[in-house]
Each structure stands twice: as structure tokens, then as C-alpha cells.
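User:
Hi there, any thoughts?
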Amino acid sequence: MKFMSFAVFTFFGLLSACTLTSTSPSEQGPKQALGTITGMALGGKIANDLTEDSSKNNLWTLAGVTLGAFLGNEIGASMDKTDILMAQNF
């Protein structure tokens, strides 16, 4: 039960630390797309490994994929914005 409480608090803690970007799909940069895919893969792998013996392994893996995709997308969008700002300074 302690692991379940830890996982829930960690999930909501990470989710509350994220901010949404205001980019549309046509404005998606290369790092944002790569971050989404990488986040999906890493989030799914980590969640699957942590919940190997759980009866709800598939549900936790799906949650890991979703959270990983969201976080990877946000990190990639931030990196794309930084690249644009740096290119404007030259």
C-alpha cells in the first residue's frame, strides 16, 4: 500500500509541476516531437519495470506512457523556444 501512495503522490506532484504550452501542432518543433516520442518510450519502460508484479501492470504502463509523453513534449517545446530565442540573438 505504501508503494501505491508513493506512486499517486509522485504522479500528481509531477503533473502539478508542469505547465501547458500554447503551441499548435503546426508550430511543433523537432525537439518537441522527439521529446514526446522519447518520453513515451522511457515512461512506459519505467512504469512497466516498477509494476512488474502488479495485477494492474497494463494500467500503470499506460499511465507511464501518457505522463512520459506529456513531460517529453513540454521539455521539447521549452528547448525549441530556447533555440528560437538564441537564433534571434545572432
Remarks:
- DSSP finds three helices and no strands in the chain.
- The first helix runs from residue 2 to 17.
- The chain has a mean pLDDT of 81.
